[in-house]
Amino acid sequence: MLLFHPMDFLIFIAFGLSLWAQFRVKGTFNRFADVPASSGLTGAEAARRMLDENGLTNVPVEHIPGTLTDHYDPISRVVRLSDPVYMGNSISAISVACHEVGHAVQHKVSYPMLVARHRIFPVVNLVSGVAPLMLLAGFILQAANLILLGILFFSAAVAFQLITLPVEFNASSRAKTMMVKMGFIRNNEESGVNKVLGAAALTYVAAALISVLELVKYVMIFTNTREE
């Protein structure tokens, strides 16, 4: 029962989609990293201007080593940009930089889905590592209560990933709007921005899909076990 389940085929397909999405992110980023933005701004400069425009003059823009390690830290309230984004003046650089600023803006205005993600994070951080162990032990010992508790814990992690989707899409939407409004890009550059941010969003979609399918699988196994 634990070795194979009909849902495993769908999970395998979703996993393949996830791998493809990761390759696409890197490929799309690298492609548009060679296309200079007409504004000539670096990612760091674009991020700084967008932060200031939104009244976030107290939020610093810091450099962080690596590639595609960019993120907004809601605890320290810092936008951290990777090597090619911080110093680059490409379509990829300013797209990613402004996307991260989008999260800072969400934080400022208390965007509901971001608030929900922040509130659920401590719970997810606590139970996500325990859930697989509970499920495994529950199925091995045929302990229904343990399986059910594992499913509930795993559901919290799935909810976190589902909440992440609107957070990421909204951050990209804010970024694109501000990039156009502030003249960071021209009309003929919007397509490149959409491709860079769209590829990144696909990774979150794939991850959420895998988690949802795994949750459905566990629920189906639990249901079948109860009926036996």
UniProtKB/TrEMBL annotation:
Pfam families: Zn_peptidase_2
Signal peptide as annotated in the record: none
Keyword Aminoacyl-tRNA synthetase: no
InterPro entries, A to Z: Zn_peptidase_2 (IPR007395)
Superkingdom of this protein's organism: Bacteria
Keywords tagged on the record: Membrane, Transmembrane, Transmembrane helix
Transmembrane segments: 6-23, 120-141, 147-171, 192-213
Name of the protein: Peptidase
Organism: Brevibacillus borstelensis AK1
Lineage summary: Bacteria, Bacillati, Bacillota, Bacilli, Bacillales
